[in-house]
Amino acid sequence: xxxxxxxxxxxxxxxxxxxxxxxxxxxxxxxxxxxxxxxxxxxxxxxxxxxxxxxxxxxxxxxxxxxxxxxxxxxxxxxxxxxxxxxxxxxxxxxxxxxxxxxxxxxxxxxxxxxxxxxxxxxxxxxxxxxxxxxxxxxxxxxxxxxxxxxxxxxxxxxxxxxxxxxxxxxxxxxxxxxxxxxxxxxxxxxxxxxxxxxxxxxxxxxxxxxxxxxxxxxxxxxxxxxxxxxxxxxxxxxxxxxxxxxxxxxxxxxxxxxxxxxxxx
Length: 266
Hints:
The chain is α+β, with helices and mostly antiparallel strands. Helices cover 33% and strands 29% of the residues. It has helices spanning 7-20, 61-75, 92-98, 138-152, 156-169, 216-230, 245-251; strands spanning 30-34, 37-41, 50-54, 79-84, 102-103, 107-113, 130-134, 176-181, 184-194, 199-207, 235-240, 254-264.
C-alpha cells in the first residue's frame, strides 16, 4: 500500500480537479469560467445553480459577488455560493451575508483515497429486513422521491427529476441505489463519476427516522465505494453532516474542510 497523500495536498487536488476545472455534474447543465469565477448553470430555472469556485481576494471579492447577483438576476434563478472554510478571502462569509446571501447548514468535506481503504471498509453489512437495489427505471424514480421525503421531509420532486434526467442521459449506468424495507424505500443514495478527475462523489443517503442507526448509510457508502473502485476511481468525496462523520472516518475518509451553502433568493 502506498503512503497516504497529505491532507494539504489532497485538499489542493480536490480544489483543482473538482472546483477550479469543474465539469457539469447534472445532465444538460453547463459550467462557465469568467473572471476567476466557476459557476454551474442548470438547464431550467428550478435546477441547481451556483458558484463552485472563486479565485478572488479582498480587493476583488465584493465586485465578484455583485457581478454574480446581477448575472443570476438576468436568468431569473436563485443560486448558491458553495463556500469552503479554507477559501479566500477569510471574511468572504461576512461579505456574502452583507450582500443578501443566507447561510444554510454547514457540512464537512470528506475525501478518501481508495487505495488506502481497508477491505473491511468495502464490505456491506445490511440490517435484517433491508435490501439494496439499483435504480434503473422511471418507476424507481418515484421510490427515490418517496425515500427523500421520508428522510428529509421534502425534496422528493427534485430527487425524482434528477433521477429521470440521469436515466435519460445515461440509461446503461447505475448511479443511484435504494435501500428497501420490503416494498418500502427507506433510503436512497447516488454517486457521480467525474471523468478526467479520478474522483467520484457520493450524495444522499438520508434514512427514514425509524431506520436510522442500523447501518443502512454505511452499507450504501460501501456499495458506492465498490463501484467507484471497479470503475478505476482513485478518490471519493462526500459532504456530510456530523451524524455521518463517525461512519465515514471509520471507513477511511478524512475531514479536509467545512462547506457552507450561501443561498441568494430573488
